[in-house]
Amino acid sequence: MGNFDEKADLGLFIGYFLTSHAYRIYNKRLMTVEESVHVIFDELDRRNIQILKTRAEEDEQSISLEKLEICAEKQLVDSQNC
């Protein structure tokens, strides 16, 4: 490991440790639960979450429209071949 490599792992907040002031974190890379006081929380703002949901819904709608257009084109081609 070099001097400038990442030294932190991503994790999920599970709760608080019972006997100290530490956090219980599930380490995604190691797949273990750890106790740590050195935690930086990366929280999404509610507005950002709403923007992400809206974009996902728009993507789903555009995919549905593309599927409908493909089906309509296929039906048109099939009806011309009869």
Spatially, the strands of the biggest sheet line up as 1-2-3
Q: Report the structural category.
A: alpha+beta
The H-and-E topology, N to C, reads as EEEH
Instruction: Kindly report how far apart the N and C termini lie.
Output: 67 Å
The multimeric state of the shown protein is single chain
Q: How big a fraction of the residues is strand?
A: 15-25%
Report the mean per-residue pLDDT as an integer. 78
Shape: elongated
Domain module tally:
2
Describe the overall structure.
The protein is α+β, with helices and mostly antiparallel strands. It has 2 domains: 1-43, no CATH class; 44-82. It is 44% helix and 20% strand. The chain contains 1 helix and 3 strands; from the N terminus they run E-E-E-H. A 3-stranded antiparallel beta sheet has the order 1-2-3, with no helix packed on it. A hairpin with a 6-residue loop joins strand 1 (11-16) and strand 2. The longest helix has 36 residues, at 46-81. The N and C termini lie far apart (67 Å).
Offer a quick outline of the entry.
The chain is an alpha+beta fold and 82 residues long. The chain has one helix at residues 46-81; strands at 11-16, 23-27, 32-36.
Chain-wise SSE layout:
Layout: E1 11-16, E2 23-27, E3 32-36, H1 46-81
Antiparallel strand pairs: 1-2, 2-3
Main features:
2 domains; elongated; 82 residues; 3 strands; alpha+beta
